[in-house]
Model the fold of this input.
Amino acid sequence: MNSIKSITIFIFIFLIGLVISHNIYNSYFNSTIVKESSKLNQSINLIFNKIEHQSQPLIDSINACSPDIQSTMLNLTYKEALISAVSYIKDGEIICSDRGDNWDNANLNHLTPYFENTSQQSILFREQNPLVNNDTIFYGRRTNEGWVNFILDADYIEFWLINHLQPDIYHTRIENSHQQIIAEYPENSSQYKQRYQYTRKSDIYPISFQLSYTDEIWNKSINQFLPFSVFINFLISMTACLGYYRIKKWRDCLETDITRGIKNSEFIGYYQPIINMNSNEIIGAEILMRWQHPKNGIMCPNYFIPHAESSSQIIKMTLQLLKQVTRDIDKIRILKPNFYVSMNITYSMLLDESFVQGVITSVHNHPALHGHLVFELTERQDFTKLNRGRLIENMDLLRRHSIKWALDDFGTGYAGLNTLQDLHFEIIKIDKTFVASSITDSVTQSILSKIVEIGADLNCELVAEGVESERELTNLTKFSIQSAQGYYFAKPMHFKAFYPQLATDKPFRS
Done:
């Protein structure tokens, strides 16, 4: 059975890991495209900034043609590899160019709509070159009366794309502001069905980049990543199974150890006194479970209580603790006739008939417990989904056998005013977080005052838990709180240490 569980856990974690890895890699792949488009944008901005900077004197001053203007244009083509030719266009005609009179104005008609039908300061388009009769990239820059037109080297643009990207991974397309394709790599990439694409527009120039990849590229890339992913997920799955096995083995060993401890009566109670704040006298004690382990010594409840509660072993352990109380209470009441012992139980224990009957039997056989035993139910446990009717019924049943009820950790969990009224607690134990923070926090002080009011309205005794300093104790005297417990008075102690101190009738102090 354990082997089947381990295999199931392995397969489940492995498959989940593959799905997560796939999504992570997909997100990484897509985010890489976004980053690459940002790099392209920065790079193209630098290129066009350079063109703008070198041609700015020409743009600012040109209004006619002259040898100096032609010389400036010619120098631009020499300085910038991207620029193949430069011309000045006015009223649909080429007024001047670096090529002298080699331009044929009659072939310019198909270009004029680009210059005339725009309000932009710059334009970018791809059309037939009237000089060399092939497809050419044009970049126009508006002047006072016309346009300075730059013919850009298409081979240079393609070379630039290849050097700035990984062409076997990305399909890249450069478009103008009208989504006309200026350049793309690989050639005719727009004909492929794209798995993912991202478009980035330049903030300055009439240009945008569209990066994408196809299913074929994605499958090729993921296949390269897959062996690494499988290996990592295999290690994670094996680690998880090993962890599950070790935890299961530890829990099984712990459960066996607890069973042995119950059989050998190793679970004992440590008493922590509850002090009347007015008289400074001890009026009761909370008995807290400890494990007197033969190998590990005294063990605190955090180690074994959670597992004992989940495995229902807590019922036998608590009944065993109750037996200790029946032995100790006779001695205690000789010194303190009104003394009571408080012990923790859970809501699930209260719904267990064997536990309830075990308690009734103990109380019936030991009359000294009548009126001197308090069961604490913690507010931290969610009881809203339990059988509330049965809960109240069993509480009332035990109340008829002279057991009192306390609500532990009040203010931290699930109990509201309706719960307090329905379950009829005789004692409310205020959680230590309110005790500590009420010294300096005005909000907590207000909450504490409300708790005191609720306790008075319901005729409940109030016990402040976790008092650890004289300052906290002094602060509590401002409120009508009857009793307190905590390390300031005493830490939980074995009955052999508790009883002699109780017999001296001296105030408890740590």
